[in-house]
Design goal:
The structure holds two protein chains of two kinds. By secondary structure, chain A is of the alpha+beta class. Chain A contains nine helices and 20 strands. Classes of the chains: A alpha+beta, B mainly alpha.
Chain lengths: 399, 77
């Protein structure tokens, strides 16, 4: 028997509210399954469970502000034999009682049909409470949305996926659950802690992007519009590969110790409309090629702004990159997001005089910066990391 | 494409990309990227939308012609 706790989704989070359970009491869950939706300063976040077992019972009330660490549910472990309650075989699909709220079983999340069939219109629509609320907020007619839940029930995920063609005419509302003032307070608190606890040092270097952008233009010329890559993806890929080779920067500082991480879960700072910032991670970024990273980035930006980020994306980042984009300032001096120990910054890409073979040319250049944690590393090691990233960007064909 | 139809199409696409964007406040010859604070991902999504709606094949080298509404109207069939 174990307790499923309200997770911390980053240094800037202290509490959250339970909005919807995605599993029923008695459901079999596997590690990685989405089990609950939390409303946080960062909007609605889907939370995974990281153990196998059976949801014994919910403990936390709905729609009440709860501190991080609150017990949300009691879970009977897969190995434990719960007296009196026969656990269904792990392979059995969850069978929710008809008509019960929250009928969004695990199976719906882990194995949605590739192409859910649209239901015949007319009959009552089976949908989870969150799906109903989302549909109401976005002016979407639930009857036109194909359900991927049990017995074709419409779950929140289906509504989020539903395009504007399902809109029933009402205007779309802005990002759900996003309170700009609350997020600003949370960012302020987290960054105050970072500046107080982390002895930052900063490094800066100029990187010529001419070869990378030329390679990218060539690659994109061969691609259809929706398969094209953004320069940001090259920056991400070079950063992920370099971090994998510099374990002293990829990890967490916890309880006075630095613990290097096995994988590079690369946080990517995304500015939210109306103010605010969220830095969800691309998990195992070092194993993903450019196309996979582009898809991941596109998906992450969409969910960061529209809702549906997952807890693991918010509390598993091992290092973070911020990029100011094409119209931003030339350099950024980032603040490290604890418990991480480095943050990399790319300024906007600008055309500047650059010396090649003793000749001056006008070339695309980016300023790459690093904020490091002196408790863990120093400027020499940081320089080597920046050098590695810069070198990788000079050989874009190897990315 | 007529400028009015272009506006209508762009407004529809932006409803997904940048729901709070006020396209009516943007002049025909203004750069929509700076006027509406669109980043490169937003702009790419807009180009994808224009491609899907009109069938226009839009090579990356033509992107600068799509920075303004009047440019889009001239460019799109």
């Amino acid at each position: 028997m174990s307790e499923f706790l309200l997770p911390s989704l980053g240094a800037d989070m202290e509490s959250a509210r339970v909005v919807e359970w995605l599993v029923d009491e008695g459901d079999v869950v596997k590690s990685g399954d989405l089990v609950v939706v939390l409303e946080t300063d960062k909007g609605a976040i889907d939370v995974e469970i990281f153990e196998d077992g059976v949801i014994e019972r919910y403990v936390a009330p709905l729609d009440v502000e709860l501190p991080v660490g609150t017990v949300l549910a009691i879970v009977r472990g897969a190995d434990a034999t719960g007296a009196g309650v026969a656990a269904p075989p792990p392979t059995a699909p969850a069978v929710p009682a008809a008509g019960e709220p929250g009928v969004t079983a695990t199976a719906a999340v882990t194995a949605p049909p590739a192409v859910p069939a649209p239901r015949a219109t007319g009959g009552p629509v089976r949908a989870s409470p969150l799906a109903r609320r989302l549909a109401r907020e976005h002016g979407i007619d639930l009857g036109t949305v194909a359900g991927s839940g049990p017995d074709g029930a419409v779950v929140a995920r289906d509504v989020r996926r539903a395009g504007p063609e399902h809109a029933a005419g009402q205007p779309r509302t802005p990002r759900r659950g996003f309170d700009a003032a609350a997020m600003r307070r949370a960012i302020g608190a987290a960054m105050t802690r970072a500046k107080r606890d982390i002895p930052h040092y900063y490094l800066s270097t100029q990187v010529c992007l001419a070869p990378a952008l030329a390679w990218l233009a060539h690659a994109n010329a061969e691609r259809s519009v929706n398969e094209r890559l953004l320069p940001a993806v090259l920056l991400l890929r070079a950063s992920a590969l370099a971090l994998a080779g510099h374990p002293g920067f990829n990890g967490h500082f916890v309880d006075d110790h630095y613990v290097p991480a096995d994988a590079v879960n690369l946080g990517w700072a995304i500015a939210l409309r109306g103010g605010g910032l969220v830095a969800p991670a691309i998990l195992d970024a070092e194993t993903q090629d450019l196309d996979a990273l582009m898809a991941a980035l596109r998906d992450l930006v969409r969910r960061a702004r529209g809702g549906g980020l997952r807890a693991s994306e918010l509390n598993r980042a091992t290092a973070t990159v911020t990029s100011l984009g094409e119209r931003g300032a030339e350099a950024v001096w980032p603040v490290i997001h604890p418990p991480q120990v480095v943050m990399l910054g790319f300024g906007s890409i600008v055309t500047r005089p650059w010396v090649v073979d003793d000749r001056i040319s006008a070339l695309s250049v980016v300023t790459l910066t690093l904020a490091g944690d002196h408790r863990v590393s120093d400027g020499h090691a940081g320089s080597l990391l920046l050098e590695d990233i810069a070198a990788r960007l000079q050989a874009p064909e190897t990315l | 494409m007529h400028i009015d139809a272009t506006r209508e199409l762009v407004a529809r696409l932006l409803a997904d990309i940048a729901p709070e964007a006020e396209l009516t406040a943007v002049g025909d010859d203004e750069d929509v990227r700076s006027a509406l604070d669109l980043d490169s991902m937003d702009f790419l999504n807009l180009v994808v939308g224009l491609h899907e709606a009109t069938g226009a094949d839009i090579p990356e080298t033509d992107y600068p012609r799509l920075f303004t509404l009047i440019g889009m109207a001239d460019y799109l069939p």
